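Input sequence (275 aa), recorded before submission:
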Amino acid sequence: MTQAWNPELETRLDAVERALQTRRVEYRGRVHVGVDLGTAYTVVLVLDEHGQPLVGAYRFAQVVRDGLVVDFIGAIDLLKELKRDVETRLGFEITHAATGYPPGVPRAEVRATANVLRAAGLECTNEIDEPSAANAVLRIRDGAVVDVGGGTTGVAILREEQVVYTADEPTGGTQFSLVIAGALNISFEQAEKLKTDAAQQQRLFPLIEPVMEKVGTIVARQIARQQVNALYLVGGASMFPGMGVVIERVTGVKTIAPPKPLFITPLGIAMNDQS
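Predicted structure, token format:
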């Protein structure tokens, strides 16, 4: 597998990681805010007027499934909690945000996601599909973004930086955890924690490799009639070591794994806040 990215991208994603850990900032300018309601993680990220990360927060929560809000009240309560968290560190209230959605979800579900923001006290300034948000960061001219999230794998093919095809199918990090839980006879919550433990990942790899292969099969099927010469992985499940290697083996297409893929889409969403 080819692991290639430019240093500027790595620097920006390092800045996002620092923003998530920052306890207090001295800033009173215009902000851009992104809310990523993911199947596994919900992320709130705040950028300054120049697009540099200021603060952010994220929590594991299962309020969304396969791109659909399944726990509306839980999603609102979680977003309110994250909003209070970043506001405490900013020292002022945030009033607006952009949000993202997987490709192919019904328009009613996109509205539901926006309604979660409104119910949490945020004006929804933009709704952007997740592959386009990711590409605002990656700036891919030609290729495909593969977003392996908690519940689904999204594929977006780009030509001259424009999304020309999208698809989204079930299978993602949640399936990793279900397989681990079943194989080791532990709870789903224990499996989720074990999955992110770097010391355990080599041991767990043979258990979840078949799920990775299924992700690769989904990607191969979706790009079969397209000319795609490179795949770019984003999404939390892409962080598991060996993911890119398996997808490249199954698809036969060069697979590039940017650093810290969990934060690429939230950053792109925040960049598209049109307030």
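Checked by second reader. The chain has two domains: 7-129+263-271, 134-174+209-261.
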